[in-house]
Inverse folding.
């Protein structure tokens, strides 16, 4: 190794909070490094203590923690882990957050409201992260909320590959329908990837109500198989309304595709009852078994572990991540 190629950081050290143990194990398998030991203890007063089993001084550390339910507990765990690693003199710390919560609070679109997504970014930085990695944030402006560098990844190619390799032959005149106009651009990219036309739903949310109303379909779905696409399923209300709307407009089979399956409250039960051929999603957010069983074989969960594992390896080696996406 020449003088210029000299490594700045020590080895890769992987840590995980308690939010997504299966995903963390799969990432560790891909990277070929075990998850490092740590204790995460919650006291009766709900305060959390983290203790590392070994020193991380001088190491290149990655902390895997998604911020789905329980959102606040998972965010605090992430922040406390980051600070613990910083205080133990890690050389570089990367927060690996597959699902970044509060993404929908990304602008002051009404008087006297916060931009909580910015606050979350600030907290991650202040806690000690030097870099971050996340997937398909709700809006692109999230990148601007961080002043540390990050890798904002997308699962688009995974979803496109799944359709082209596993579904394509059984689809009848497929059309992609973006569940709302906010997802229109990504929906168009997805449609281009599977070589299908695109249609859009105009959706309205009254004030801050969790319940959405699918108003108008822009495009034609009559006698087409429909693939509904969205970034996240929260209450499932948007998807349920969209399914009913496209069915009313003459759609044949309906497929649902989303990146982040939050499935809050009764969402899984309500969605499983819909006339949907397949629900395709990823493991950025773990789906508890009692919810996933409701879908039977209709639920397909594509793992992001190889993607995150590869990005961690490349980040550590100082190799391009864009190359992975042909950039
Ligand atoms: C909102 O703009 C997002 O893209 C999703 O459409 C939204 O999070 C879905 O929420 P829900 O499942 O509660 O309708």
């Amino acid at each position: 190794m020449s003088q210029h190629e000299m490594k700045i950081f020590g080895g890769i050290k992987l840590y995980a909070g308690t939010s997504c143990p299966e995903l963390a194990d799969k990432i560790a398998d891909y990277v070929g490094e075990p998850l490092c030991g740590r204790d995460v203890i919650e006291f009766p007063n709900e305060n959390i203590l983290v203790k590392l089993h070994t020193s991380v001084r001088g190491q290149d550390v990655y902390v895997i923690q998604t911020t789905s339910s329980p959102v606040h507990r998972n965010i605090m765990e992430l922040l406390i882990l980051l600070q613990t690693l910083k205080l133990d003199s890690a050389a570089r710390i990367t927060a690996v957050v597959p699902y970044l919560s509060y993404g929908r609070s990304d602008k002051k679109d009404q008087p006297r409201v916060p931009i909580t997504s910015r606050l979350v970014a600030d907290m991650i930085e202040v806690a000690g992260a030097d870099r971050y990695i996340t997937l398909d944030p709700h809006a692109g402006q999230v990148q601007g909320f961080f002043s540390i560098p990050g890798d904002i990844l997308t699962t688009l190619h995974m979803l496109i590959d799944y359709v082209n390799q596993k579904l394509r032959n059984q689809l009848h005149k497929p059309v992609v329908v973006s569940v709302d106009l906010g997802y229109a651009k990504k929906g168009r990219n997805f449609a281009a990837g599977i070589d299908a036309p695109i249609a859009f739903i105009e959706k309205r949310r009254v004030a801050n109500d969790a319940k959405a109303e699918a108003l108008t379909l822009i495009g034609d779905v009559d006698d087409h198989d429909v693939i509904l696409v969205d970034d996240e399923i929260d209450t499932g209300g948007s998807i349920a309304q969209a399914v009913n709307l496209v069915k009313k407009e003459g759609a044949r089979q309906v497929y649902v595709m989303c990146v982040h399956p939050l499935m809050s409250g009764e969402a899984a039960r309500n969605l499983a009852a819909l006339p949907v051929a397949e629900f395709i999603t990823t493991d950025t957010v773990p789906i508890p078994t009692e919810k996933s069983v409701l879908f039977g074989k209709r639920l397909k969960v594509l793992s992001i572990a190889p993607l995150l594992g590869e990005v961690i390896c490349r980040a550590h080696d100082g190799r391009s991540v864009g190359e992975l996406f042909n950039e």
The first strand starts at residue 12 and ends at 16. The pocket of ribose-5-phosphate is lined by residues 104, 179-180, 182-183, 210, 212, 230-238 (CB under 6 Å).
